[in-house]
Each structure stands twice: as C-alpha cells, then as structure tokens.
Write a structure and sequence with these properties.
The structure is a homodimer of 402-residue chains.
Chain A (H helix, E strand, L loop, with lengths): L2 E6 L15 E5 L2 E5 L3 H8 L3 E7 L10 H19 L6 E6 L3 E2 L3 E3 L4 H14 L5 E7 L6 H17 L4 E9 L11 E11 L18 E3 L7 H10 L5 H12 L3 H7 L3 H17 L1 E4 L2 E4 L1 E3 L1 H16 L9 H11 L4 H20 L8 E2 H4 L11 H6 L9 E2 L3
Parallel strand pairs in A: 1-4, 1-8, 2-10, 4-5, 7-13, 8-9
Antiparallel strand pairs in A: 2-3, 6-7, 9-10, 11-14, 12-13, 15-16
Chain lengths: 402, 402
C-alpha cells in the first residue's frame, strides 16, 4: 500500500434521521464536488489505495444484545451513508471506536480507550505501507477530542514506521460551514500540514515499577476482587523485561539488543488481540446504557508500539548475528539517526578489524575483552560503558569466526 | 511559573450577541460549577499560575483600520466574556491567532500561519516554566483544526523544554453538550491524557537547499517582484548554517557544537519579532475582507525551536569550555537520553585522563590527535568519526591545561 486516507468523523445525521452535514461545494485545488462531506473530493484528488474512517460508538441510538453487534450496527450505518449519500464506490474501512458521554445512550468508561483502541487498529492498517508512502489525515468532520487523539496516535505510529519507511504526512481541513450565511457556500479544503516524518519512539517502559498489564479494571469495580483477579490474569505481560530491553535497543541504538530481545510478533499480536477480546467481553449493555468495566492501559499501546517496531524492522530473534547482516540492518534502521548509526558502525568496524587480525584464535566464541587487550578496557561490566559502545561492551559481547 | 492552563476556544456567542455556549454544570472530580465554559472548574481544580486562551481572529464581526486593532477588539471581547460571564478574577492572557475562511468577514491567508504564530506566542509563555512544572491543555471548546495544531505545537515546545525540565502534561475534555437532551445536563470533564514529557527535537534543518527565510509571499502576490524582494530581505536568516550546526549539536549530542554555535538568544528573538511585525504589516484590511499577503515559513518555527533550546539550556556561545562545566552541563541536558549522555561522558573521561597524564605539555593548545598517539586514530577528519565520538574528534578538538 502506497497511500492511505484517514478521516475523523462526527455524526452526519440528527437523531430524527435528517442530515446535519449540509450539501455544499467542497473544493481542493482544481477538484470540486457538491457533497455532504469532504471525502469525495479528497478521494478524487488523492486517489488513496485505502480509505479509513474513524467514528465513535456513541452515535448508536439503540442498544443491541452485545457490544460487537452495537459496533456492527454503527459501522453499517456509516457504510450506508458513504455508499448511498456520498456515492463512494471504493472500499472503505470504518473503525468504530469507544467514546464516553450521555447521548441517545449513556456511555461509561475511560476516555483514553479511544486512543489505545484506535492506536491498535490503525497500526494494523499502517503496517502495510510500502517503503515510499503517503499518509493523509482529514480532520474536517472531526469532533471534540477525537481528531486530537487520532492525530497523536498517527504521529506516534508513523514515527516508528519512519525508521524503515519514507513517509510523507499531510493533514487536510475544510473551511467550516457557517449555517448563518445565506449565499451558496463553497468550502476550500486546505492542506494545513505537509511534511516528512522523522523516526521517533518515546522511551516509555512497560510496567513502571510493577508488572505490566494490558488492561485495568475501572475504579467502580475494583471492589470485586474475583473480577480483578480474572482480568489481571488475562492481561498480564509475562515478558515485559525483555520487551523493555528491545525498546532500549531502539531508543539507545544497541544492535545486539535488538536481535537478542526482538519479540515474536505473532505471539505479541495474539496477546494484543486477546486483550481486545477481554476488554470487549467486559462491556455491559443495559437499558439505555453501555458500560466498559475494563479499560486499556498505557502498556497496551506500549506493546503495540513494540509490535510495530519488530514487524517493520524485519528482524527476528537471534542469539548470534553475522557481522555483515548487523552492519546492513543497522544502516537501514538507524540511517536517519546519524550519530547512532555512526557510533554503531564505528564499533562494528573496530570489531571487524580485530576479528581479521585474530582470525586463528576465533574458531570458538571469545569475549571481546580478551581480544582487545591492548586498550584501556574496563575489567568489569559497566552500564554507562555498555551504552557508550552501542551495547557492544567488551565484557558481555562474544565473537567467533566462521 | 510552576503551572499553566492553555485552552483552545471557538466562539462562545452568535452573531446577534446571544451566547451559543449554554450554561451547564461542569464537573471535575469533587469540583463542579454551572457555567458557559469548562474554564471556571478547571481554574478552581488546577489553580494554575497562568491562564492562556487561544482564539481565532475570524470571530471578528467588523473591520478595523488595521490588523492590530482588529486583534485587540477580539481580545477585549473575550476578556469581557471571561470576566463578566465566567466571573474569572485571575489574570488571563488571550492569544488571537490567524484563521482562514468566510465568516462575518472573509479571511484569506495560509492556514498554517495559525500553527507558526501560536508556536511563537506559546514558546514565549512556556519558557517561563520552572524545573518541576505542569502544563494543562483543555480542548473542550476547541473547534476544527485549532485544537489539533495547538496540541501539536505544545508537544513540540514541551519536547524541547523537557531536556532541562520535568514536565507533567495533561489534556482535558468535557463530555459534549447535546442540545437535544431535555434533562438538566451535567458534563464531566475527563483528563484524557496525563504523562511525563520526554525530550525530543526533530532534525528539521533550516533552509533546505536554499537560503532560510522566515516569511514567504503568498502565491497570489508573487508577480509583484518589488514586494517579494522587500519581504525576502526582511525575512532572511543570515546565520542558518550556524543554527543548523547548533541543531545538530542537540540532535546528535555534540557538546562542543552546542557551545561553538549557540545562537545569541536576544538577537534571535529580535529577528523573530521583526518577522512577526513584517507579517502583520502585510495584512490588508478591505471592506469585509482581511488578507494576509505574507505567510510564515516552517523555518520561522524552526528558529523558534532553536531559540527555545538555547534559552532553556542556559548556555552561551564559547570558543573554549572548561571540561568540568562541559561535563556538568551535558549531564543536565542529555540526562534523559542515556546513550548520548554515556557516550559524551565516556569521551570526556578519556580526554580528562589524557590531560592529567600530559599536564606538562598542555600549557598551550594541543590537538587531541597529537596526544592520543598510541591509539588507532584517523589521520584526517572524518564526518562519521566525528559523530561516533560525540563531536570530540581528534583532528578538530584542541585541549589546554589552565
């Protein structure tokens, strides 16, 4: 996939059924279309390979027997609007995200569920981007907190993908429709941002001081200890230390850490899916009310980030790596972060030189310290030394010639 | 200043004068207030030392003789609303930002002017934050693109300040007011985000391939070559190479670059002020129309970022730096970026050791290469080597004992 258009949408219709989005002329450069939405013009102008609309479950006007059905109902109403009213023939993916507040129905839960849920869903879409790609975000119809958090999620996802992809990111917004003006409106769609994405990943460690969990029971239900235990068990991350080491490998530029602690992406993805399933299972639907008893934790999104990184870096866990592979992969992953890349290749070059010189001794694994005997080398492991040598510290790194 | 509350606001009143923001009960934990805005509850709950409201000039309903007066009129209307309707007694700063679109008046210009302008104005506010501080953003009343771009600006500003400050960042959003519901509404204000800010600065170089300019003439006026020349001259950045070297010092962790190329913050600030003045001078007001003939460039914001960095790092340009000062400052600036900090202190420790050993020779400046003769040292300058040694490369760094 080379291009994707993501839109944040509010509610195009009133409760009675009448449309609240008026038909106006939307205009983007030479393209213009009279429509209830900016979508048709954007689709025509950008010609994205994929279209994703992010909406909120809070637009639901009646309850269903379970949450999945409620989301399905919302999704279908939007698809109907997109096909019949907007006459969009392209395939459109509608992501129904969890909102909070009193509307036709009352939705109880954590507002940040929106962020975590959309982060996961969008990550699964965007992992399919090619090396040269474009991401377009339209916030014209976004309401309230949704475009802000969607934008933040996108920024974070794209920051991770930018380690290995060249991404152009655009944001669009149409001039607002003013109901008071009588004249026939024409709303210009502005590209309010257009830029290259630089690689970035925040050093958010999993678990803080305690154990990492992907879900948390909401305050109101914490008294139900049985329930808490059950959720806690289902949401536990058993390998958070290793995941943190992988994170450190990216943030601090430690090539062997990346290979040693690279998570199994299939297993991690399954873990995330199970958490979403557990979360969904604990949405209770009562008369006029939808309550999410469980919420996603920041560690849920931290795990999604590492899943994205591991999957897009295209490496797999190894105990030992061929030096040339290490050089080549690190150039690709840290090519934009010049000082990291320079330090790594400097350290690898030193090791390579030594390996060539001491070929004969290297028919079995040798600690680097025993090879570099001539230099001022710390006789014991030191954390800062480890970081200053891109993780290729002489007391913990072994070398072999094969 | 230890805490600041920033809010993004739309228009609280209709053109006739009637309020469009209804009086409802806003509730945040134990605090509640019936008001037309979330502001009173937030002020009571957070007790911020400073309050900033970001509004758009497009709410203006009649023209003034110049743009500054138009902004002043908008500012006063909001202050009046804040004092009389919301009964806020604390001092409030209203930032009137440039918007685009057809409202009571028609506003022509670049939409991104909003981002660049608010970036500068907020930077000037936030530079006053203490080492331990809190930043609160309320997006309840934000409309359209404004909260998205305001949030992005804040994220970028705080990322730079986080090199030297511990910042807690919160975002608030009230449940939306639904006009259709008949019952007395109570809107809960949710803290939708709460987190520590990590240091970050994108490697956006000034000028790209050409010369850096803080302002650009908009497409429609490019034919007026005299005008273009005038603006180009006023907006020229003469020291962009040095500014880029300073940027590289931060992004790549090069301590001597920071000192060698640290910009004069007063001069840079003056340059930015002059650009804003020139931009404002070129806003034309005609009957029913406000046109900005000139727009801010991304380099304007790139310069603001470097101004923020230089000012908050609390360093000043020096040709030579005492080693202990270098160690101490770098620990403060790169304390969060552990691998950068480890590499820098590793390199400085090596130099210190050598300096102690060769004290007698060091009564005048000596190139590091001539001191470290024992090691494998490149005989000529090499860019990657420079980066791999935190900029303390042996062919370009000199040492003296005093």
């Amino acid at each position: 996939m080379r291009s994707i258009l993501v839109s944040s949408w509010g509610k195009p219709w009133r409760t009675g059924g009448e449309f609240s989005w008026k038909k106006v002329e939307y205009r983007l450069k030479e393209t213009s279309r009279t429509s209830r939405s900016s979508l048709p013009v954007l689709v025509e102008h950008i010609k994205p390979e994929r279209i994703v609309i992010v909406v909120l479950d809070t637009v639901a006007e009646k309850i269903c027997s379970n949450y999945q059905k409620l989301c399905k109902m919302v999704e279908e109403r939007y698809l109907d609007f997109i096909q019949k009213e907007l006459e969009i023939l392209e395939e459109v993916k509608v992501i129904v995200t969890p909102g909070v507040g009193s509307f036709e129905l009352k939705f109880k839960g954590e507002m940040m569920d929106f962020y975590h849920y959309v982060f996961f869903e969008l990550s699964r879409e965007l992992i399919g981007l090619e090396k040269q790609c474009e991401v377009h975000l339209d916030i014209t119809h976004g309401l309230n907190f949704a475009p802000v958090l969607l934008h933040e999620a996108l920024e974070n996802i794209l920051g991770i993908l930018a380690y290995t992809k060249n991404i152009k990111f655009s944001i669009y917004n149409a001039e607002p429709f003013i109901p008071e003006t009588k004249e026939k409106s024409s709303l210009t769609i502005h590209r309010i941002e257009y830029r290259d994405v630089y690689p970035s990943l925040s050093p958010n460690r999993l678990g803080g001081k305690g154990e990492a969990r992907l879900l948390a029971v909401r305050e109101e239900h914490k008294k139900d200890t049985e329930f808490c235990k059950k959720v806690s068990k289902a949401a536990k991350v058993s390998n958070s230390k290793e995941l943190n080491a992988f994170l450190s490998g990216i943030v601090n530029g430690l090539p062997l850490c990346l290979y040693t602690f690279c998570p199994n992406t299939q297993r991690l993805e399954k873990k995330l899916f199970l958490a979403v399933k557990e979360w969904r299972k604990n949405v209770e639907i009562r008369s006029g009310e939808v309550e999410r008893k469980v919420s996603f934790t920041p560690d849920f999104t931290n795990c999604v980030k590492l899943w994205l990184a591991a999957k897009s870096f295209n490496i797999e866990r190894k105990e030992a790596v061929v030096l040339e592979e290490l050089e080549e992969r690190m150039r690709k992953i840290f090519g934009y972060e010049r000082s990291k890349e320079a330090l790594i290749s400097h350290e690898l070059a030193k090791i390579k030189e030594e390996a060539e010189a001491k070929k004969k001794e290297l028919n079995k694994w040798k600690l680097l310290r025993t090879l570099f005997s001539g230099e001022r080398i710390s006789p014991s492991f030191d954390r800062r030394n480890f970081l200053a040598h891109a993780g290729l510290e002489y007391n913990v790194t072994e070398l072999r010639y094969s």
